[in-house]
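Discussion board: Methods & Data

I've been asked by a reviewer to show the raw model output for two of the constructs in my manuscript, not just the figures. I'm not sure how much to include, so I'm pasting the format here to get opinions. Each protein appears as its amino acid sequence followed by a line of discrete structure tokens. Is this the kind of thing reviewers expect to see in a supplement, or should I convert it first? Here is construct A:
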Amino acid sequence: MDTISLPDRPKASKAKKEKPPKQSKGARAPKPKRAEPAKPGTDDPQSMFKVGFLSDVYQGISIESGAIENVVTRPNGFLHIGHSKAIAMNFGFAKQHGGESFLRYDDTNPKGEEEQYFIAIEEMVKWIGFEPKRITYSSDNFERLYALAEALVEKNRAYVCHCTRPEIVAQRGGGEGEGGPRHACPHRDRPITESLAEFRAMRDGKYEAGEAALRMKQNLDDGNPQMWDLFAYRIPDKEHRRHHRTGDKWTIYPTYDFIHCLVR
């Protein structure tokens, strides 16, 4: 077999070093200028509230000195780095402008809520450097929230829905017809007395999880999905109904969508 002979790899030519020009006697090379010491940066932990969008927020709204900042968290896990930012912004904003902060536990979903998370969250807030004026729990308001839900039904602004999850998705234009027209739940226009009786049946344990839920009457024609008859009360699975603070008293629990504007 004939072999192919490759040409020798070319050798890199060595560049001749140029000698620096001789300096004339008596001439000295200029000394390099000494670098100016760096000016110390501004170490102001409150600067985030004095400039930027948080300053614009304060300038754009009327806040009285001593106002309350409500910091909400769900006690179903340990805090992560994102929570520390939210804590610093919310507690810090109130402190910067002479206000006070409440730490509210949104303990409306017994599934996953444990005492260790309540304790760890409070300890983390204090470790970051803030002291809540008061610690509150959504569960302290369960009786009042239930009464408000009944009042909403009586005003014909809520109804008990028995639709399955796929049916609700279809009502919102999803499923096979994703992005399609929306339509109302068939139970939306049931009589007020019927919805009220069904809601009380939910409370009394007649239904299992997924068999009934209280939905708010909103605006299905609105382009915002948060207006498509959101849930106000739901039934958890039996193994997740026992509440850390209220025990076995309740078989139904309010949703965050229902209570977030009602509880402080």
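Construct B, same format:
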Amino acid sequence: MANLNDRLDGLYWILPLVSAAAWLGMLLAMFIVWEVQGSPHYVSMEANQRIAYISDIGAQELQPLFITGACVTTIFLDLSFFAERWLRHRGRRLAKNLGVAEKASSALSIFFAIAGTCGLILLSVFDTVSHPRLHNGFLLIFIAGYIISAIFICAEYQRLGMHYRNLRVLRRSFWMKLFFIITEVLLAAVFIGTSFTSRKSIGAVFEWIIALIFTCYVLTFFVDLWPARTNHQRTSSIEMGNVDRATAEYGNGNAIGRRQQSKPPIGSIDAATVGHTDGTAVHGGQGYDGAGSGLRLKPPIAQNY
């Protein structure tokens, strides 16, 4: 059973790929069908509107595809959120959450992601032809939900980066998600400003752009979960980054406090250590970790990671 769980933990990176593939495939299918049909002017479109919104196409015969794509995309994306939270809670394959702030940020990001999920699924069900007000309301919930969720997950990664400063994947993911937040907020402002005026075609263009950028956001979770594909022992040593052996051993927020009381074993101090009062590593004899590696490590000290 333990081996099965380890194997499953290493396959979570597939979840965001399924989500992104479903979303991008749905968008391409809807746009291609609209083009092949000769770019028809739907009843939900304004008289001077030449480009259809995603919702305009999704309110027609392709509504089953729209609903299915929305469900598959958001469900697998939410599963990616839960998988990332689970792996960081265990701290075996991804960098472990060490503080309450990180765990709270993660929980809030999941909450608002679920809100965004409900918004997207409901807007696909309540189409813009039969339920225009409900549709627009759920659209705003969808956009706001995932943007706020991204803000909280950036806050979590910023806190994680303070503990794991040597872990590049956290920095990459943080900046990618921050780019998504800034870009989507700017594009959403233009989208809202044009959609509720006479410039519907411009608003439709920006809606398609926002949807495509959302695909990139989904793929950032592939970046987050990809390191978990390797063996958990090997990944743990990589994920620890700047966190020393004491943090890896205790694996919780109390590790820093306990390191202040850590003292090197008496038996590990030999003549080679004499004169090295700065605690730097020296070769020879049994190491500080007791593994006999020949590399003596300085005793853990309290640091602000």
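Answer (T.O., handling editor elsewhere):
This is acceptable in a supplement if you add a one-line summary per construct. For B, something like: Residues 231-263, 266-305 have pLDDT under 50 and may be disordered.
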